[in-house]
């Protein structure tokens, strides 16, 4: 059964976003165990998803963060594992309600 979930996740990532509601629904149900690092293949599945559809992975990470801001350390770890570069979050911005000022390179002001 686990292999079926992984195959479905990867197949859905490759499908054109003609049905984004269906895609988001499937991902919101199947992806959290991989994001929580509770699955033995989490890194492999996330790497494959990143290669196939990085925009979708970024959107799901943002949704995961908005669900509970305490997920930030895990999200940071995923980004490091995927070698996400600064600035690659363009195109998946949502209003989080956070209004912390930032300096020119995107880091929060101290």
Number of helices: 6
Please state the overall shape, judged from the principal axes of the Cα atoms: globular
Helix content: 55-70%
What class, by secondary structure content?
Answer: mainly alpha
CA distance, first residue to last residue: 48 Å
Percent of sequence in beta strands: under 5%
Count of distinct structural domains: 1
Give the total of beta strands: 0
Average of the residue pLDDT scores: 76
- Computed Rg: 14 Å
Which segments are poorly predicted (pLDDT under 50) over 5 or more consecutive residues? Answer: 89-105
Oligomer: single chain
Give the ordered list of helices and strands.
Answer: HHHHHH
The biggest beta sheet reads: none
How do you describe this structure in short?
The protein is an all-alpha fold and 110 residues long. The chain has helices at residues 2-14, 20-30, 32-35, 42-52, 54-67, 72-82. Mean pLDDT is 76; it is low at 89-105.
Task: Please give a structural write-up.
With 110 residues, this protein is an all-alpha fold. It has one domain. 58% of the residues lie in helices and 0% in strands. It has 6 helices and no strands. Helix 1 runs antiparallel to helix 2, helix 1 runs parallel beside helix 4 and helix 4 packs across helix 5. The longest helix is centred in the middle third of the chain and has 14 residues. It is globular. About 15% of the residues have low confidence.
């Amino acid at each position: 059964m686990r292999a079926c979930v992984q195959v479905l996740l990867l197949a859905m990532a490759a499908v054109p976003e003609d049905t984004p509601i269906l895609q988001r629904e499937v991902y919101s149900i199947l992806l959290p165990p991989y994001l929580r690092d509770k699955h033995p293949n989490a890194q492999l599945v996330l790497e494959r998803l990143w290669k196939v559809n990085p925009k979708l992975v970024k959107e799901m990470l943002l949704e995961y963060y908005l669900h509970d801001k305490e997920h930030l350390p895990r999200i940071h770890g995923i980004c490091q594992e995927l070698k996400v570069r600064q600035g690659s979050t363009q195109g998946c911005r949502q209003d989080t309600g956070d209004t912390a000022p930032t300096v020119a390179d995107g880091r929060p002001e101290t």
